[in-house]
Amino acid sequence: MSILPQISLRTPLPFDILGAQVAVTGLGSAFEGVYGSVVVRDGAGHVVAESNLLGGGNGFSLFHSAFGLGVPSTPEGTVTVQATNPSGLPENAASVTVPVTFGRTLMGGTYSGFTLHTVQEGDTLSGIARDVYGDEGRAGLLFTANRDILFTPDVLYPGLALRVPMA
Questions:
Q1: Which residues of 126-162 are buried (b: 16+ CB within 10 A; e: fewer)?
Q2: Which residues contact 97 (CB under 8 A, 6 or more apart)?
Q3: Other Cβ atoms within 10 Å of 111 Cβ, number
Q4: Is the distance from CB of 51 to CB of 17 less than 8 angstroms?
Q5: Could you say which DSSP state residue 16 is in?
């Protein structure tokens, strides 16, 4: 039995905000240089992009793939890496799925990255949205961009570093 998992995903990490392209990298077990495939889905289950993962040979090695994304119908989705399973046996099947956020859909078209906002006493998502975007109504996109650390939009703790997506 191996002490290494069949797939260890390095990027994207859970809840990363993706732009127009995504790089999928990690460590995995290969068969003849092929590690498997990657499928990106939006929250409605539609395939946004898919690609094969390639790497350096047999056994455990690094794999990678970089490709453009279609336009997701929802700002939230998943990236699933499915390992190659030439045996077809269920015990040899392996996959990893991570939740992601699609920056372009979240921002309504253009996404150029994010800045960080350190929460101060008295901050609210609507107040931060008003200060950054000029629109309190965009507080929901701040919540979605930070769903890995926020469990309710009404509770912010001083010192918390929030991602503020930029168009």
A1: bebbeeebeeeebbebbbbbbeeebeebeebeeeeeb
A2: 78, 79, 80, 81
A3: 20
A4: no
A5: P
Contacts of 108 (CB under 8 A, 6+ apart): 167
pLDDT by position in tens, the chain (length 167): 456 677 889 999 999 999 999 999 998 876 555 578 999 999 999 999 999 987 766 667 788 899 999 989 999 999 999 987 777 788 777 889 999 999 999 999 999 999 999 999 999 999 999 999 999 999 999 999 999 999 999 999 999 999 999 99
Closest CA to 123 of 104, 105, 146, 106: 146
Half-sphere exposure for 141 (CA within 13 Å, toward CB): 25
What is the DSSP track for 49-114? Answer: EEEEEEESSSEEEEEEEEEE----SSSEEEEEEEE--TT--GGG--EEEEEEEEHHHHHTS---EE
Under 8 Å between Cβ of 139 and 55:
no
Other beta carbons within 10 Å of 30? 21
